[in-house]
UniProtKB/TrEMBL annotation:
Full protein name: Signal recognition particle receptor subunit beta, a GTPase
Organism: Micromonospora gifhornensis
Keyword annotations: GTP-binding, Hydrolase, Nucleotide-binding
Region listing for Disordered, in residue ranges: 1-68
Family, per entry: Belongs to the GPN-loop GTPase family.
């Protein structure tokens, strides 16, 4: 086998780098020559100034947009005497199929459950009515209709728990049936609005006479509405909501 002869590397002068050293081969730092004594040395040349370029904003991170906050639930009671239109009120405004607990009226209720002159009423609420309506993206009303008979009065305390306001539905032809409901909310300290249901589109008495007969102060809103008309029910509920929010704001400041 022929032998391989290594190249003849030049001999480096004394104090200099060897031509085959790692520093010479791979571009290591070159020793700085000593300063010249006796004369001023020129400063090293500076690199040319580069033109200014404004920084470019990084592209926005793409991802799933944040979910909107769910609407705040607000519990509202629809209360009043027997046969004044509570179930109709909830059904007219609810955006879901309302939950009702209607039972057929029997001869056992004659003389006990008096519907007045509305002989076409054949059912009655025996527990509660439930519906809901979204006001906007931040607010949703949950409506609980109370039973109107006195024998179901024990349920009112449970239904009123957590409620922020109430709409007391009144039949102007039978105002005495709504006295227990007004007394209940006055004792409970719950904000309420009296809504006079316009049966057949008219009232038996004007609102001033009704306020006097119910002995309610001027601080209690008294409105006329039609339980069969969705927009009319909406306007009455907005009054309840406004009163409830005013009460909550006042309590928070206190």
């Amino acid at each position: 086998m022929d032998s391989v002869q290594s190249p003849d590397w030049p001999v480096a002068p004394q104090g200099a780098l060897s031509a085959n050293s790692a520093t010479a081969r791979y571009g290591g730092p070159t020793p700085t020559p000593p300063p010249v004594v006796g004369r001023a040395s020129l400063p090293p040349p500076q690199p040319a100034a580069q033109p200014y370029h404004p920084p470019v904003a990084a592209p926005a991170a793409t991802g799933t947009p944040p979910r909107p906050a769910p609407p705040i639930p607000v519990k509202i009671l629809i209360a009043g005497g027997f046969g004044v239109g509570k179930t109709t009120t909830v059904a007219s405004i609810s955006e879901i199929d309302p939950l009702t607990t209607e039972a057929e009226m029997t001869i056992a209720g004659i003389g006990v459950d008096d519907p007045g002159q509305r002989f076409d009423k054949t059912t009655t609420t025996v527990a509660m009515d439930f519906g809901c309506v979204t006001i906007d993206r931040s607010l949703k009303l949950y409506l609980f209709g109370t039973p109107g008979q006195a024998r179901f009065g024990f349920m009112w305390d449970d239904l009123a728990r957590g409620a922020l306001g109430a709409l007391v539905v009144v039949d102007s032809a039978r105002m005495d049936d709504c006295y227990p409901a007004i007394d209940f909310f006055e004792r409970a300290g719950l904000p309420f609005v009296v809504g006079v249901n316009a049966f057949d589109g008219r009232l038996a008495h004007d609102l001033g006479a009704i306020r006097w007969a119910l002995a309610i102060g001027d601080h209690v809103p008294l409105v006329q509405f039609d339980a069969r008309d969705r927009l009319s029910v909406r306007d009455a509920l907005l009054v309840v909501l406004d009163r409830a929010l005013a009460r909550a704001t006042r309590d928070k400041r206190a």
